[in-house]
Amino acid sequence: MSQPLHEPPQLLGVALGELGCRRIEADEAAGVSEESRRCGNGYLVCMAAKGQTRKKQTARKPAARKKPAARKPPTRQQQADRFAAQSKKKVDARREEASGASGWVAERAGEWSLDGPDYGFMERQKYFWNPLVDLYFRMEMDGWDKLPKPPALLIGIHSGAPFVWDAWTIGIQWWRRFGDERPLHGTAHDALMAAPLVGSYFRRMGVLPAAPDSIAAALAAGHDVALWPGGEVDSLRPWSKRDEAVLAGRKGFIRTAIQAGVPIVPVATVGGPDSMPVLFSGRRLAKVLQLDKVARLKTFPIALSAPWGLSPALLPEIPLPTKIRTAFQDPIELDRDPERASDEEYVEKMYEEVRGSIQHGMDALARRRRLPLFG
Questions:
Q1: pTM for this structure?
Q2: From 57, 140, 199, 260, which residue has the greatest number of CB atoms within 10 Å?
Q3: pLDDT grade, residue 292 (50/70/90)?
């Protein structure tokens, strides 16, 4: 019988398998990878010829890396609490370093709490404050509808010393409107808070030292705070600048509002400087007496006051019967990112916005004067 034209299938498989095995050996000698050889039929036939089986492996996709969960920004309360704790630590360290007269002032000023105002104490004074506000100062106060929900940082200007009447009248009007439902803390200079009688009275009225730790703690507790950044430079400014919004370039209140996560409410007021006209600022005299080192006072002004006449403006006085006009301006929202507090350009921009708002409000109030003095 003649041979078939084709080899039997089993013989053909063996032959192909041997060819495939030789190819694999040649590829291995040449350094060809296993992955590159898998596309050749000889490789598969060789494996079949040797009786080996390979499980089919499904291609596995590399496991996707889980992105780290985005860190949630802190709530306003968390941010305010953290800022209060940091402020307390810094101020405590600064007060411990103070010595001598300045150390005594710092220690006395550091005795504060959020327990005030003493509303019973304020209630007993209404027969003094109500006539003073309504009849003597004939006070007008607008803009209540512009107040945001608490807490807020009220920023304004004031005049006089040691009793700044245009600031005290705001506190009294606030109490008459809100009672104990919405506490407001005024702020005062360390020298006033340290004074034996004046400081005790201020504390019972809910006043806090104008320091980062007390302000931050009050805001974190949900209380409104009124701050006058210009300090004595503002309150004892010459009468010729009575209608100027003087914040003395002090921008710490912007950083405080950012880190506490609260809005700023600018407060415009006119008329206060007429209660005790300041004639000279006394900057040189304050420098000679080193008042800046002792009590953080940069001026020693001379004023016309009752009953002293021409005298140092720091003496307690009977205010002249001026008319005080005050108005809350639209609240200013700031970026809550704490990093913004270190952005000098942003801080400067917001400082000018606040100062400009106060000045705009003062200009509007000044145009309502009927008389150039006391009107």
A1: 0.77
A2: 260
A3: confident
